[in-house]
Amino acid sequence: MDPECSQLLPALCAVLADPRQPMVDDTCLEKLLDWFKTITEAGSSLLLLQENPCLVELLCHVLKPQDLSSRVLSFSLRLTGVFAAQEDCFQYLQGDSSLFVASAAGQLLVHILSLSMRGPAEGPPSLQADDWPPCAQKIVGHIEESLRSTATPQITQALNVLTTTFSHCHDPWTQVLWVQLHPLVAALLQKDPVPAAHSLVDLLLSVARSPGLSSSSCGLWETLAQTLSHLSPTQAGLLALGILKLQDCPQALRAQAFAVLLQPLACVLQATAQGPGPSGLLDSTAADSVTADMLLPSKAACVGLLCQTLAHLELLLPLPQRPCPWPQAPLLGAAVTLLQLCRGSGSPASDAGRQLCALLLGCVRVQRAALDFLGTLSQETGPPELVTQVFAVLLEYLRSPDSSPTVLKKAFQATFRWLLSSPRTPGCSDLDSHTLLFLRELLPVLQKRLCSPCWEVRDSGLEFLTQMTRRWGGQAGFRHALLASEVPRLTEQLLRDPESYVRASAVTAMGQLSSQGLCVPPAGPEHPGSQQKSLLGELLHILSTDSEGFPRRAVMQVFTQWLRDSHADVVGDTEQFVAGVLQVAGQDLDWEVRAQGLELALVFLEQMLGPPRSHCPYAVTPPVAAPAGPLTQALQSLCRVRLFEFAFRALFDCDRPVAQKSCDLLLLLRAKTASSSSLQEPRSSPDVASVEAALQRWRAGDQAQPLGDLEPEVVLAVLRSMDLEGLRGALAESSDHVEKSPQSLLQDMLATVGILGENEADCY
Amino acid sequence: MKLYCLSGHPTLPCNVLKFKSTTIMLDCGLDMTSTLNFLPLPLVQSPRLSNLPGWSLKDGSAFLDKELKECSGHVFVDSVPEFCLPETELIDLSTVDVILISNYHCMMALPYITEHTGFTGTVYATEPTVQIGRLLMEELVNFIERVPKAQSASLWKNKDIQRLLPSPLKDAVEVSTWRRCYTMQEVNSALSKIQLVGYSQKIELFGAVQVTPLSSGYALGSSNWIIQSHYEKVSYVSGSSLLTTHPQPMDQASLKNSDVLILTGLTQIPTANPDGMVGEFCSNLALTVRNGGNVLVPCYPSGVIYDLLECLYQYIDSAGLSNIPFYFISPVANSSLEFSQIFAEWLCHNKQTKVYLPEPPFPHAELIQTNKLKHYPSLHGDFSSDFRQPCVVFTGHPSLRFGDVVHFMELWGKSSLNTVIFTEPDFSYLEALAPYQPLAMKCIYCPIDTRLNFIQVSKLLKEVQPLHVVCPEQYTQPPPAQSHRMDLMIDCQPPAMSYRRAEVLALPFKRRYEKIEIMPELADALVPMEIKPGISLATVSAVLHTKDNKHVLQPPPRPAQPSGGKKRKRASEDIPDCKVLKPLLSGSIPVEQFVQTLEKEIL
Predict the structure, then answer these.
(1) Are residues B403 and B397 in contact, defined by beta-carbon separation less than 8 angstroms?
(2) How much is the ipTM here?
(3) Taking the CB of the first residue and of the last residue of chain A, which one, N or C, has fewer CB atoms within 10 A?
């Protein structure tokens, strides 16, 4: 322990031992404990105690009966445990009100149980519970007693201890333990309602996942099946998902679990069925009355259950062990129906359907969940008539003035995913005719959304446009539809939106449109006032004048992409472009803009010098160095765009990521030029010295003086003389290593109880 | 207690309540949808409208061709537009004691009632209601009078002929009662009968009932009314809103414990959320203007327009519309914009506080100052020299049958760049557009109706717990086009009583108590006897005196003193029915004797 901490420790121990100074923050104590753990792991605990007698005093002090807070007591006990593993029963701690204390006590019980079962050295523990060590028997007895209790908190704690046990211990004795306790756990199911259902589900799933147990022999599957049918639909959903995620489990149980999971949606389909019930989902799952009862009486219960079900199914869909056959069509139908009910556009024939409609009408939570789910379902296809319905309901949501901004965003996302999955004509990469038809209906909606008074809506509209353009910008059908609409022109106008997020999204969208040649300069007699200004000029203007960071960052990203793609506006005079951008970016107050400037510099550098060597040890890299001639020219080009001045400034940037990035860039450059012999110059030239002197001043914080025009040789010499590796090491150290230090923790804790000298001085 | 229902229009109600000895008319709304059957009145000579072919019957007889014209597949009456009045035959309107007005939209039939039925009572309304109501009437009269039309069609109204006409003329109801617009003189006379009231002010009607206006949150000065006696309370809820717009918020608490709640004036577009519609309005407006088109907003000169202007005030800069002129054209545009700023006490709290700052409550003042919003009495005059396109024009009338809007429809209808945005929910936009078809201009329907929707009503009813609810029949079932939407109807227990035009409802409610005062000297003389802890009884002998619907127990007259020589002229004049009172039984009753006496008396 460093001396500074040693000095603070006595005062802290005094605070902890003083019941009048309550330590309200549990997390401090947890951190303190972590710190002691690392100290004792690194060195001798005995020495630590000898050097810091205050610790022993604290531990002795807490043993005296007094009004010490349970948190400090727990901390002290665990600290004692850290110093010397003492075995004792801390069961009474389990019922403590502090979450940390209860959980620590539970964990302690598990550890003690596990330790005692591992035994001293008498071979593997007996598989007869009667022969278990007395300590273990006592703990098991305590758990049994708790499971028989009528108080739900006690049952919950016992279940949690067991859950931890089965998650952490996979020895054969755990099977004995399960066989012994299983009847008690199963007995819980006979109670109505089932107590501590959530913890029970956790326990059963942890037992089922435990490799130490052979599930079939322990009646686990039967218990799981029983539990599925006893729990309420909301609780059973979680268990069903857990069961379906299990690697191996009986087919019948999986089918039952899936049926439970699908039940709420089956109810929805049944309630809204127009004619005879839909097939598929309902064949195996007769929408039982319990779920229907659960759905209909209250809005909160209905919405909660539906959202949970949709989220569970969404998690299940991408898993390899998902149920097969997957009921894609009924699920699509259910998602579409839910979305219609939320809009009031479905026309349910039954009373239950009408009730459901009244509950779900305008419910944003269900709308969001259903749109997310619908988007996920796009990974699979569906019957064409259902896909048509999907697009219809999406269009309805995109059009509706009542769609909230978040719902609209989700609708855009789901629409994009469905467009991605829409079938393509074989041999033709273009969008098929249905999709194009849809697109023609979609674009006017997008147009209107881009004019929305709500900035979130304009923003998600632009994001959607960017995604679409990135994906289909090269395809004739899409290009034709887009160019025939007002969308490109409206996007251009949004570059001047008052909301910075929207401007940023408009920059990205325009960058993308321009890359694909989809920008239409405003022209025509109806726009006499608008000047013909190039997009490049407009974006440079934003970069140098916009008051908010987001649009400027977006511009830098667009420029980097343009450089990478050799955009027509850039290739004309790349050097001038790069020089201009770097000059503006270097002065930006936003570190992300400067960092993005380095990214752009890197792209330029790679274009000049070739990509960095592969780090893969098996890659075939030609050992030959780059020829000197082109290298010199490349370096001269880099000098002309003042890339070095930009990078050197960034190297001493007060924001660590910028400095790190610059360091990496310069290291790459040095590696690239290392083998070039023609540029080796003596490093004592006067130019080199003056540059190094300037850099010294920069490092010290005085960046006023520019470097002026640099020669490649000078740059290389400066690069070679710099300890870039050392700098990278220093930068790699976390910037908050000061804040995370134990000294800082001790100071903080003392400060909260007002013990530090300066605070006392304040009183006078 | 009876309710006479004179109007079938749920948002333009006109009901008469007979309560105790009073006859109270609740609102007198004017159903103007009848004007949709008439040809528009063009402000500027329109060759298209003046050269329409006359309509002839299937058998070729053309005797109606002067009255009926065919226009884009529809038949319209070529005459001065007429309005559908409230029922005048159901009850003798000269017996109406008072008329309570709840908001300026619900008083448009007032001149017909006060000037032509022998009405001699008083009308009660708040000041903004009267002032803005006057503006609306003035605008209406102006719109119609400035396009004089000699012809008044009446042949088609003949029942036998009407049967032969195409829809919707064939199905038009009560055509015989349709009347031409009133004159400004009638308006002034009607308005002179109004007595101004303030929110929560208690007004005694003949000592029998007390009426009180409460803020209803829908429009400037809009009110609901409480009509109560000592033991009965009737609430009349007309156009009300719970949204935070410009008016003072709705007073819900005072509606509690009503015996009967009469519920009218709910939103006409229950499926459209006003916030979403305002967003839609702004988006479509911006889209049109950015494409170089003009936007036409047919509207009333007061009400939602204040909120729209406020939204646009916040929106135009962000939408890059700062250079687009906004024109508000109405004969009363100036008064409307100025009035709104001076009714401070009737505004929502937020706006009230602005009155004490050097800042007007509504931002349209700033729009006017910065020349972004300009207002004109008519498109003739200054407007034609200032007019610049693309622009946004707010003008009336929302029916598209008269007012400056007719001209703009003719002017802009041919270009698909232009857009007409309907924000007023009172008229079917398709019917309003019928005489302008075919139309190239884009039409957007964004009805903004801030009145209560059914979810809000159901919460309100749960909150105020009336014993009985009475409402127009339209509210007791889902709209015909959305029969599955059980949420679009009033759901309460016991089920609401519904009414329709020309129906008389006996309200399900019996009066059981009446308050009687006891004179102090009589009260002094009472000797209460406790019969149960907390309950005492006393017998009282007194004379019940009833005057001005107030009942007072007075001490009984003393038995006439034997005239000791002095001769009294007519003793009975002072003390009527002056019999010597028999003493009353009190104390324990000898039951048997009592029963015997009873039997003897009865048999």
Answers:
(1) yes
(2) 0.75
(3) C
